[in-house]
């Protein structure tokens, strides 16, 4: 796509606008993210927490790249953005078996960017001729930049796909994919390719990061922590994307030990699946770990480590976030926004089978203190706790895990 260089006046207007765009308001970025992650064609991106985070990073990178280029050389053609966020997208698409059509999400974001840029332009000049030239040049510049960036990422996807078909990582990922899909691969051959026995008791985990930067060493360290938490010296770790590791270990990791040690890796999150025997356990545990991962992302949960055993009920209750939010409001009423010491008192009291002495000991408070907090909770609840223990317990678990 070619165009005549803009006039000196319009170049100055583009530079002024780009200086504003290089510091976009947060609501612009949220709108851009929503556009690229909405719609049926982008469902696979939106449903995968790692892919959604990578898409958000790429959105911000593209916006700032185009704006910064126009601060330096206003009106010139902006080269394709092939920085780390775009390379991460390419790797993740390939490792999840997706193709270049997923890049159409950038087109959705382009429409938002053009609309926001038009708002900026209309605030820079009231001269009709200047505004016409400004919008014409910049809209074609944005279109060319998006086209070139998509083409560059598509080339990187082709290279990543070729690389994935060779080497030990590729062989392990292919073997794991076959096992998860239920393909009739002989167990002995699969064990040889993986270097991991498929007999015995397995626990699967998903280790990932949704932070602005991907620290590969931290991801690998977190995968090692999962194994160390159950004493397995021969775990199976498979890079499933630029920011994801799939892990299998023999045995059941100690969740509190894992949580304590993972605190040193604040950008990494760990979802631990169920524990079960044999090949079926290998598959089931992985599916459960993915369910935990999706739940943490769906609830924007602040928790960095979660196990399927802890959150299975919450994952089921929050499959539809709007209905889950309505359920919590209906059941808890004003208790939903009460102090944490009050909601924790109710949750622990129920977990202690409504034994006040036991619950007080678990909370390290005097029994009378606990009773006062329970009485306050009863005043806040729409129905007394004694009449609605099960629903209150479920609602409090949702409250505990969501943001």
Architecture overview:
The protein is α+β, with helices and mostly antiparallel strands and 403 residues long. 63% of the residues lie in helices and 8% in strands. α12 (278-298) links the parallel β4 (269-277) and β5. The protein is flat, with a radius of gyration of 26 Å. The model has no long low-confidence stretch (mean pLDDT 88).
Briefly summarize what is shown:
By secondary structure, the protein is an alpha+beta fold. The protein has helices at residues 8-21, 26-37, 43-47, 49-72, 84-95, 105-122, 128-164, 168-180, 187-194, 216-228, 255-262, 278-298, 308-317, 321-332, 340-351, 356-363, 367-380, 389-401; strands at residues 201-208, 236-241, 244-250, 269-277, 305-307. The protein has a five-stranded mixed sheet with strand order 2-3-1-4-5.
Shape: flat
Q: Counting H and I runs of at least 4 residues, what is the number of helices?
A: 18
Number of strands: 5
- Which spans of ≥5 residues are poorly predicted at pLDDT below 50? none
Distance between the termini: 45 Å
Q: Biggest sheet, open or closed, and with what strands and sense? A: 5 strands, mixed
Across the major sheet, the strand order is: 2-3-1-4-5
The value of Rg in angstroms is 26 Å
Q: Give the percentage of residues in beta strands.
A: 5-15%
